Structures are given as C-alpha cells and as structure tokens.
Amino acid sequence: MTEDWSSTSANHAPRALDLHLDVGALGPGRRQAGLEHALRTAVREGRLGPGSALPSTRALARELGLARGTVTAAYDQLVAEGLLLTRPGAATTVAELPPTVSAFAAAARPAPPVLHDLGPGTPDGSAFPTRAWLTATRRVLARARPADFGPGDPQGRPELRAALAAQLGRTRGVLTTPDQVVITSGFYQSIGLLAEVLRASGVTELAAEDPGHRTYREVVARAGLRVLPVPVDGDGARVETLTASAVLLTPSHQYPTGVPLHPDRRRALASWARRTDGLVIEDDYDGEFRHDRRPVGAFQALAPDRTAYCGSASKTLGPALRLGWLALPPHLVRPVVEAKERADLYTETLGQLVLAELIDTHAYDRHVRAARLRYRRRRLLLHRLLDRHPDFTPHGVPAGLHTLATTDREEAALLARCAELGIALSGLTELHHDPAAAPGRPGGLLIGFAATSDHGFERALHALDEALAS
Amino acid sequence: MTEDWSSTSANHAPRALDLHLDVGALGPGRRQAGLEHALRTAVREGRLGPGSALPSTRALARELGLARGTVTAAYDQLVAEGLLLTRPGAATTVAELPPTVSAFAAAARPAPPVLHDLGPGTPDGSAFPTRAWLTATRRVLARARPADFGPGDPQGRPELRAALAAQLGRTRGVLTTPDQVVITSGFYQSIGLLAEVLRASGVTELAAEDPGHRTYREVVARAGLRVLPVPVDGDGARVETLTASAVLLTPSHQYPTGVPLHPDRRRALASWARRTDGLVIEDDYDGEFRHDRRPVGAFQALAPDRTAYCGSASKTLGPALRLGWLALPPHLVRPVVEAKERADLYTETLGQLVLAELIDTHAYDRHVRAARLRYRRRRLLLHRLLDRHPDFTPHGVPAGLHTLATTDREEAALLARCAELGIALSGLTELHHDPAAAPGRPGGLLIGFAATSDHGFERALHALDEALAS
What we know:
The structure is a homodimer. By secondary structure, chain A is an alpha/beta fold. The first copy, chain A, has 3 domains: 2-107, Winged helix-like DNA-binding domain superfamily/Winged helix DNA-binding domain (Arc Repressor Mutant, subunit A); 116-124 and 366-469, Aspartate Aminotransferase, domain 1 (Alpha-Beta Complex); 130-362, Aspartate Aminotransferase, domain 2, CATH 3.40.640.10. The first copy, chain A, is built from 14 helices and 16 strands. The first copy, chain A, has helices spanning 12-19, 31-44, 57-64, 68-80, 130-143, 158-172, 187-200, 214-222, 263-276, 330-344, 349-360, 363-387, 411-420, 454-469, and strands at 84-85, 93-94, 116-117, 181-184, 205-210, 226-233, 236-237, 246-249, 279-283, 307-312, 324-327, 392-394, 402-407, 423-424, 426-427, 443-448.
C-alpha cells in the first residue's frame, strides 16, 4: 500500500481523508500538533509510503484551512524526527522506514483457575492496613524534605534502619544497630546479595535445608555457589553434619516442616560458626507469627558476628511492597551495601519511610498482632480438618502461615485433585534438593492458611476437605 | 565482668538490681516478657557470665514477687533460645556465648558540604507533587483488591504498562503496546537487564557515546560486554562509525553535550539497525523537557523492531521512586522479563499503581508541564550568566535539566573552586571513555538547573558567578 500522495494532487478531498484530520475540532493551539499526529499516523500506517512527495506547505495549508506557518512547523518537526526528508529545491518526501511493528501477543502463561488460595507464603491481602498506610504516607510526605525525592542511600533510609534495629531487638531478640541493618527489595534480593558477596570472598559452597525453599537455592546456585543439602528431622536441620562454610537456615520455624531448631542444635550451630569462621544466613521468614506463645528469639543473638539475619515485610504486609532487611555482622555491611548499589542503586524511598512510620507509631505491631490472632484461628480450623483425615500427619509448632501435612498417599495425585477443584497449594516433594531421590519418602502438602480472606478461607477448607476425602 | 549469680545467693537485693527489673511497673500480662528481657540483657551485657548458675525458679519468684509459673515460663523461653542451659537434676546455667558485638561505626563517606546543588541529573524535589501523589495513593488503595498486595507481575502492573504505552505514544511518538512495555526499578536496572540479555544472546560488544554517562558504561562492562566509544560532535553521536552490534545512545538530547541526533544520522542509525540486525538502546533520559518547542520524537519510531526505548520517572518525579520502563521489540520482551524476575522478582506494586493513576488523570502531564516552565526559566538565567563569562561556551538545544559549558581553562581547578564554594556539579572530562586521553580536548562543566528550589537556584547562580570569575 504505497499510495503516492503526489499522484492524487488534483483531488483535495482524499488528502484530508488520508490525514484523518478534522481541523475544526482542534483548538488554535493544537493545530500543529494535530497535523503532526495525522501525518505521523499516515506514514506509519502506510497510507503515505516511503518516497511519497508531500504537497507544498502552501497547498496543504490552503486545503486544510491552516496558517502556512503551522504546516511549515509541522513539516520541520517531522523532518527533525527523521520521518520526512527535505532537500533544497525539491518536494518534501516520506523517508524510508522500517515495516510497522506486528502486534505482540504475549504468550499466555498456562495456569489453572485458582478458586481457593491455600498457597503457603502470602498473607491475607484483604487485611492490608490501608488506613494506617495512608495516614503514614500523608505524614511522611508532609515532613519530606526535597532531598528525600532525590537519590537514596544504598544501605537504606536511616529512619527505617533505626526503626528496624529497635523492632528486631524487641520482638526477635536480634542484637544489632542501625549501622548493621541494610534495606533490600525483599528476601529474594537479600539472599542474592549475600550469595554474591560470599562468592566474591572465595566461598564456593553453601549448605541449605533439605527440604527447603527451592527458589532461594536457585538464587544461590546462580551466584556460582554449590548448594549442599542439610537433612532435616523433627528437631530441625541436622547442623552437626555441616561441611560448607556458609549455611542458609530457617531456625525459628523450619520451612517447610515447621519445627524450630532444637536448643542443643542452636548452640552447636553457634559453636560451628565460631570454630570454623562460618556464616549462618538466618531466614526469619515468619518469625512474627508464633501462635501459642512468644516466639523463640532469633538464632542471630547466639552468634551476632557470624549471622546474617534476614527479614521482610512480605509475610506481615505483603510481598507487593518489596521491602526486606538484613542485620549483618559488621564485616559484611560494606560488601553487601556495595553489592546492593551495583544491583539497583538503592530501594525506593517512600515505602521505606512509610514502613518506618508504621513501626515507630506501633501501627505495625498492632497489625501483626491482629494478623497473628486471625491466622491462629485459621490454623486451628485447618488442624481440626486434618484430624478428620487420619492419613495426613500435620507437622510443626503452632506458628507461621502454613502447615505441612505428610501422607503415604500419592502426592502427585493429590495435587492434581486439588488443582481440579481450583485449590492452589504446594507439594513437599519439589522442596527436596533431589525430588526424584528416596522413593520411599512420604509425600506431603504445604497448606497455607493466610492468603485468603476469612470468608474465603472457610470456603477453601470445604474444598480441601473434598480433595483429601477423594 | 563475670560476676557469678550463685556467688551472691545469700544476698537478694543485688539479684533484682542485676536484672534491672521493676516488676511493679509491669502489668500482669507483661511480667514474663519483662523477666525474659531482663535476663537476656544481663546475659548479653556480661552481668551473668557463661556457666553462671541461675537461682531456682522458686527462689527467684519469691524474690521478685512473681508467680513461679511465670519464672519457669521465662526460663523455658530462654532455654529454647539457647541462652540458658538446663540439665535434669542440676541448676539452670547461662550458656557459652560469643562476645558481644562491638559497636559498628560506619566509615564516614568523605564528601564536602554541598551548599548549592547544581548536579546535572536530579529534578527539583521541592516541587514533588505531594498532593497529587497522596490523592492517587488514596484512590489506588481504595480500589485495591487483596491480590494487589500479593506477588506482582515481573513485567510490571498492566495498569502502568497501558498508561505508559499511551503516554509514550502521545508525548514521545513511541510505537509500542502494553505487552511490549516492561517496568523496572529505574534506568540503572533497565540497562543492566538489557546488557545481561545481550550477553546471553552472544553479543560481546556494545558501543556507547564518548563522552557519555560513566555509570551506565560500568553496568554494561560488568555484564561482560566490551564497551566501544562512539565519538560525539555537534550533530550528536557519529553513528556512521558503528562496529558493535548494539549501541547505547541518547538521541533526543545527547548526554552531556545536549545536542539532538541530526535527522540524517537518525535515518542512518535506523538503516544500520535494519542492515546489521543491530540493537539501539535509546536512553530517553530527559525527553519530557524540551523547552523551546515540542520535543523531537523518540528515535524508536524509526526502528521499533530494533530499538529498546528506556525511560524513567527519575527526571520528572524523582529518582527516589525507582520507577523505570522499557518499550521493547517483541523478541526481547520475554528474555528481559525473565532477567527482571531473576534480578528481584518484580518492582514494588503501590508506586506503579500510583504512577499509572497520575498518568491516567493527567496529573503527571500537568506536573511535567509546570516543571518544564520552571526549568526553562532557570536555563535562561544560567545562560545569561554564562554570557557574562566569555571563556565558557554553552552547548546544546534548550532542553533537559543541565547545560554543558566547555572552556579552555583548567577543569580540575574550576571543579576545586566550585567545591570550595560548596557548589556540587560535574566535570566533562570524567565522562570520556578515556579521561586521560587527548590532552588538547577542552574541559567543561555540566551545570544542572533543576536540583534545587527556585530560591536555592538563584543563590547557587550567585555562587557559580563567583566561581567562574575567579
């Protein structure tokens, strides 16, 4: 479709039609922009093909009822953009252009429809503290200085680091200072930065719980570290088997089994770290949520110089915020901050300031307490249901946002049945380092009780009841 | 200081003092927590040394006026945390613990005090549209669904991608669709992701303007690409010299010289990309800010299938937001989204939704227009000042947030003088690929006119006047 404008020069109407330009509809100040837009569109859609000569500015101005200066300015603009060509003494022509972009259809990600979200790691978004967040945002913006909208601190906002150092000391027993806290864009980034720093310091292997979180093992492996399995039993990770010089652990509530690391093992781990100059990466992913009593304090307090403590707002407020933190041994602060700066300069500022405000005003604590009560009740409902299905054995202490239930029944068939009923949850097998190994190992389901609203959770339990019964 | 508790067992008063515990001040529900806190602190501060035997629960309960069960529960908690040891038939003792953390003094970053910010890249934070941001936040939160606080889309929120596709088409002539837009945490991350994807596809070299942005060359080099210089003259980058298969350019307003890429070179660049299957990375870092007339459209429209268009909110709203975007050729969407997901899963959601709301309600356009007028006036003031210093030659078209002024005077001495007077600005030399090369090359100052408030800018100009005169 290379219709040549010049070939229809005797006929004025088609030109105006070609331009789809209704000058009457445009205010005086927008006529040049309107003409440019019409010319650009005609060129891109092929109505004005490459090499086509455009009418003179005088002719087009007369035809469209525009001032000649307007048309000249529009032509100049498009020449500057490279869409039109002008040569002394010759007509303005359309430049040679690439073919227009074919519409890009994003490949659909195949996913079954989820009616009941029993995923293990996401909190109840319907309980997001909208009002508190908005109030804190208003306060933060009201007192913001101009520099707060400028470049940020790669280590994180001092306000948030101070709030977290106090909060983590108070609620998790973490021994740290604002200078040792680093803000990241979530635990996923935290573990990536730590793995990069370890690799750069000559570490080649990192031990991680088996079973444990698959995604984080992948992050570590991409950083060039070999991941060694640490077996898990009813007392948590068997840390007496450690051979690597760094280990990623969930001591307060092992993921996914839900058991806390036994006190003897906590001490053994601290000795190991001191003896071997090893590093413990403590993933305190749901330490805020012990339902029966005050949580076991973070392991970090036993070996603060050998532990990188990791937390985030993902389980308390939501992963959408992308706010995570590290409490680091002094010698790791600088390398991790440098890695953070290399990765993405710094984490966005407003969210950090709002979270600091929520912590300082105790709105964060109130929110966590309310969530804990809600999840505690839901966990009881879930365990009551599991009691009715004796072929499932729940594990772990009353804590967190999920329960692991192991079974001798075939895990794949159970997961398929859940998917059929629109239930989203996870299987245990895929969390093992080698999912294909140990065929006699029991399968299991990770059943989250936080991701839905209260109402949705009850409906989800009904569906789960049906899935487990069949 | 290893005072042994058991050695003072005959004396009750010191125990209570050691614990710093005023039970009377604690409500009934907080007594266990208070005791735990006091014990924990005493252990950490060395007042209770390793191996010290604790009094029996009965004795301590009596001494402190607490129920025995409260003391037992507190001991149990600290045993679970590994701070205390208990053995059948023996007294509870303090566990062996590592030395307490030495306070970490963050090494001070040496930086002269900045009185006048004439840095080239930051917008006026005092003009941040606080009210509009807050209104948009309220609306976004009011209509948020629970899932909005859950895991995000690695490609970016559909609302923001749709808003940007329309906005970029309207204001920058970018030819794209929401499916081709990817949201990142700023241009710094955008260029890192692109470099990673290029390297993974076998590309080994990337050309970049000389002079040009040093930081971004470093990002590209870290991804494993060799960076080749593209010389810049008064018509922009000399793209006819390209030998690499990818090039990073600032076609609308070359950084730092401020000249737009000549129309002939735009066309030559598009032909090169088509002919060689090359990729143009268009850094449209300040395309919103053409002060004299409507901006030259983005180069991307000339070669949409061969251009990765990059923009961000850093120059319009502020870098603190960490919001950037890419409009990509269809074949690059999937690899870049996968790289983004590997890097940090996805960009935080609330900021994306708020920006989409600002764009959709035209508050963003209004803000940019107001900023443009402000910067235009400031640029005129700066150029009037430069007119009084004939040994400085300003370059570039009326656009952007900075002006480059070259000079035959010694750049290092000028920068030192500016620093003395508390003026923050940048030199030209460090933006060259090889700052040591070409000793005859003129030096220059990059003078930003956006980073301060209006009032601060006038004072900064006075200081600059003094620096250039001396």
